[in-house]
């Protein structure tokens, strides 16, 4: 071990402390902490091994191997931590054979079933850089420049959505009392944080009452004379709203799920009715939520109408744009989000249509003081008036994920994101057209953005589908068929489509059916890949049996 | 662009779709999504640039540059996203000059003020691998082998703490109905998740009542006949308990903060009294929390006693061992955690004393069904009976951070972690001894683990300190002195110590004083570095002025 740079820093454990000699691995452990230049051979060797693994992983075209889950899980039963450090080469070999080989090729052009995609190459070196820098974004003392850099990246996205004046951004972008956005670990924490702010504001301190934050929910409802508190949104709200309703203490029953129309958008009449009913029942409406790209089907609610309803009711308007938010980059498609600029808070996921790694959720606030409702302090950090980003956040210690966001916005640019969004939607139209043209499939909803909901129709039902004469029993059979088809396709591993449940009208009755779900976001996916996925399903359909 | 591997996948945007020609950057954007081998020059070039940046960043010995925050923030005022993709080389140059150069050298041996450290080299290539694999741990369909691998890594830590039988681990390690631990983004989310489970269990479904999860907090308290709900722990509980009390709807007032003794451990008599008082007032005690390593001072509560108190009261016992958990690896020091194995839930941070990157929190459950209390489902994922890890979690989409945890446990091993823990505590003793031996400093508490709380004493007060005759005014002066000393030291950037507030007895009265706070966890920190930090403080003290 050489620490030539500064002789004074040379570790001296081995001469000074007798007590530790029984480990026998001191030197080995200390070498792990060498900087790259101090251990050229070790770290560079591992770099090369890992680069090769990345390379062969990323080039794969299939969705995954065909090993079944039961055989796979048998490889992970050992629960002992080894006493001595494992050999690095052997560990990487183990990793390669047991984990990497049986991981999902989320970047494959034929894995079009979930909201994952190939990522731009620059995220890989940046991941290494972020880990080497090891900044903790919770406070300025462990993230000096990064704190301002993160604020900047969030302000850039804020501006892209809300488009306020130069003066507004100049005033708030680096103002420690302003919060234009919060970087969180994902869309779920973003939605929770937004609804947390909304609850604390709706039941805040007033006239000698210290607010729900300090006094708790029961006291707050009593103080304001409410019988309960609710959150209202479409029945297609993401499961994170369930988590939020549970966490925030209002309970799942108080998450009011309004029916959607056949286009997967919330029914506005029902929504208005729900608001009136809650008001009549003297319930505190914490927030009304709109969805910009449901996880189920990509549907976008009529945000402008919901904004109006929320405004009239004087209620916090939250938009879950985890998926659809980046449509703001597209001249062709941003009209679908009209009204998003009226939202009090907006969730966007960086790891979805901003093409960044998983772990970047964002919540944006129209008003820079909204997040004050959740502010906390501690004596060793997050002091009042400081630039510590942890003051207004759900999380505490946080990595420097802003590096990905800032790099993405700069290295892809508005035109680049526009191209990516437009391409995804163009390919979605291609898939929808193919489905309509092929007798084997039935399109279940006109796609709003870049998700397609459809199903395979076994031959004996095709005539009935065309005549809209399927019975509930027929639908049950077709659902089981599609469920089995999806499982077999996943198991085979050549291509991948996910599945979901959709409500459909069957002879005047609303019934749940199983739908196949395609997500078209991967820039590497071509029309040929789409054809290949459909053809794979047709081939697999011949093997499907229904009990 | 060559996509030799499979001709069928060659993107054909440029010939087929006229509509997109106006972007003018299609090819540039598509090239970003090439795999490493398809773009050798581009990605390899960036790899090299980034490797050099990492290298010079990691070799730095000072804490940070001496640029002041106001000048620094002026560099981050632009809020426009560029239209065209930026040049990668120029962007990295920008990153280097504006962000990396003014980031905190958390790995510096003389940055001993926060819970950050140098990290083992293998985390850097693994970061790249994790990002390339882009698994989403929320569900098996986007994280096949990784789901089982994560369960295994968590079970290994569970076993290290609870040490149940082989049979126990065989039964639960890969059982989709069992949860031995949840991987979360950090200690804050771990504490929130644990207390969420505790609240939902304490006020669960019973005798026709559907439980707090569905009915909400007010209805649950009513149903059970409680007047309120509380969480009880020491006054030194991490600020995440404040967030949890707020989020969960009980309010900050219902987070009962019990005084600590001079050794920073919760006063057991006061704790018992608090429990009795809550019972007498008919309050539901959701959880009693013990701390294994307070963020303030590293103090460890008497966990065995708290376990007994919680057991007698039939209340969920949670241990926040975010910092101190890894003491279980040390034969010399694990006795300090005696009783942790009785905890119903335990928080441990991977990015603290497991020497892994930021973003790895963990909560372990003694009983494999505890986390069922927060289970959620969705139609497109997290189905009942599935191996989808998102079923029982606070977060939704999550990166494959298990790669770091599993690698750490294997590549460092129990002996390696034992060495790291023992070394940190040995160096802490060295620092405490030096402080006691130097007239310039006053040790403020005997360290329990590897945090040292002390302060600089200006010359005119040294005699009074020795005689324990400081007045409140004297203490006020010394506090301001230390606050300014810490700020100047941070600003100078050569070395770093943080500060906190501590309660002390001053002539029979409890008063708050400002304390310097050292954290000794970095394996690269030597006794020479410790001396250098103290000497730097003595030098800076000569420049401190008090208003």
Automatic annotation (TrEMBL), chains A, B:
GO terms for cellular component: cytoplasm. The modification N6-(pyridoxal phosphate)lysine is found at residue 352. One of its GO terms (molecular function) is aromatic-L-amino-acid decarboxylase activity. One of its GO terms (biological process) is carboxylic acid metabolic process. Keywords: Decarboxylase, Lyase, Pyridoxal phosphate. Pfam families: Pyridoxal_deC (PF00282). InterPro entries: Asp_decarboxylase_pyridox (IPR022517), PyrdxlP-dep_de-COase (IPR002129), PyrdxlP-dep_Trfase (IPR015424), PyrdxlP-dep_Trfase_major (IPR015421), PyrdxlP-dep_Trfase_small (IPR015422). Gene3D superfamilies: Aspartate Aminotransferase, domain 1 (3.90.1150.10), Type I PLP-dependent aspartate aminotransferase-like (Major domain) (3.40.640.10). The keyword Lyase applies. Signal peptide: none annotated. Its cofactor is pyridoxal 5'-phosphate. Belongs to the group II decarboxylase family. This is Glutamate decarboxylase.
């Amino acid at each position: 071990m050489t620490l030539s740079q500064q002789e004074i820093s040379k570790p001296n454990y081995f001469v000074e402390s007798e007590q530790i000699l029984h480990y026998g691995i001191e030197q080995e452990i200390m070498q792990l902490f060498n900087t790259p230049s101090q251990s050229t051979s070790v770290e560079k060797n591992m770099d090369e091994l890992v680069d090769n693994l990345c390379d062969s992983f990323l080039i794969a075209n299939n969705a995954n191997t065909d090993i079944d889950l039961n055989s796979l899980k048998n490889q992970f039963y050992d629960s002992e931590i080894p006493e001595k450090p494992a050999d690095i080469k052997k560990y990487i070999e183990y990793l390669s054979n047991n984990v990497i080989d049986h991981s999902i090729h989320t970047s494959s052009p034929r894995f079009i079933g979930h909201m994952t995609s190939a990522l731009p190459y620059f995220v890989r070196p940046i991941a290494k850089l972020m880990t080497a820098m090891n900044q903790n974004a919770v406070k300025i003392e462990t993230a000096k420049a990064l704190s301002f850099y993160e604020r900047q990246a969030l302000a850039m996205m804020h501006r892209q959505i809300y488009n306020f004046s130069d003066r507004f951004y100049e005033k708030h972008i680096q103002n420690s009392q302003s919060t234009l956005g919060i970087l969180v670990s994902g869309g779920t924490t973003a939605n929770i944080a937004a609804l947390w702010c909304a609850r604390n504001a709706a039941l805040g301190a007033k006239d000698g009452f210290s607010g729900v934050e300090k006094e708790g929910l029961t006291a707050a409802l009593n103080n304001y004379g409410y019988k309960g508190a609710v959150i209202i949104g479409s029945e297609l709200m993401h499961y994170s709203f369930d988590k939020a309703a549970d966490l925030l203490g209002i309970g799942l029953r108080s998450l009011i799920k309004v029916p959607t129309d056949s286009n997967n958008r919330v029914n506005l009449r029902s929504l208005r009715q729900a608001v009136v009913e809650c008001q009549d029942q003297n319930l505190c409406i914490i927030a009304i939520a709109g969805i910009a790209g449901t996880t189920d089907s990509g549907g976008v609610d009529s945000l402008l109408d919901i904004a109006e309803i929320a405004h009239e009711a004087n209620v916090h308007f939250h938009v879950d744009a985890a998926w659809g938010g980046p449509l703001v980059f597209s001249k062709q498609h941003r009209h679908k989000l009209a009204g998003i600029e009226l939202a009090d808070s907006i969730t966007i996921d960086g790891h979805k249509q901003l093409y960044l790694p998983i772990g970047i959720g964002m919540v944006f606030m129209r008003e820079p003081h909204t997040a004050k409702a959740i502010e906390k302090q501690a004596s060793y950090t997050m002091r009042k008036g400081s630039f510590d980003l942890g003051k207004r956040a759900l999380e505490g210690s946080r990595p420097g994920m802003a590096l990905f966001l800032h790099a993405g916005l700069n290295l892809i640019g508005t035109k680049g994101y526009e191209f990516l969004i437009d391409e995804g939607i163009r390919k979605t139209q291609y898939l929808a057209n193919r489905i309509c043209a092929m007798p084997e499939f039935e399109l279940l909803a006109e796609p709003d953005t870049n998700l397609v909901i459809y199903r395979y129709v076994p031959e004996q039902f095709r005539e009935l589908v065309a005549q809209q004469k399927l019975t509930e029993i027929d639908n049950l059979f077709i659902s089981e068929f599609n469920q089995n088809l999806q499982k077999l396709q996943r198991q085979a591993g050549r291509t991948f489509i996910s599945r979901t449940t959709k409500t459909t009208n069957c002879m005047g009755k609303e019934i749940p059916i199983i739908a196949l779900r395609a997500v078209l976001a991967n820039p590497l996916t071509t029309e040929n890949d789409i054809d290949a996925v459909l053809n794979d399903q047709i081939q697999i359909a011949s093997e499907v049996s229904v009990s």
